[in-house]
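Lab notebook, bench 4. The sequencing result for the construct came back, and we need a structural model before the next group meeting so we can plan mutations. Quick request posted to the team channel:

Model the 3D structure of this chain.
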Amino acid sequence: MTTKNTSLRTPLAHARGLGSAKSGFAHWRGLRVTALALIPLTIWFVIAVIAHLGSPLPEVRAWLAHPVNAALFILFIAIGLHHAANGLTEVYEDYVHGHHTKLVADLATKGLALFLGAAMTVSVLKIAILG
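Done. Here's the predicted structure in token form:
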């Protein structure tokens, strides 16, 4: 038995209606923007770590207590975790095939990133405020 295509739409019109019309570009652009933001922050972080190798703990705490250093460190944490969570979301979309498995993995990743970000931010603020 054969079925006849009774649609008045052309194949091109049908193909244009397929695919994701969601936030693919925004997700792609977000990954690039966070990657660009991480370049100077990572350079700053690596230089700071190298400069404080072998330093006593009170000196490192005093360095972190400076408002600019604390703010840059919190930015490094937040942007790095955001970039990592979004990157893993892309991996789940490409390689995990079950919808529920993908959803659970994505929620777990974002929840863990949020928890770690909050814990690290509180730790940096505690050192910055209390010394």
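The chain has a mean pLDDT of 90.
Will bring this to the meeting.
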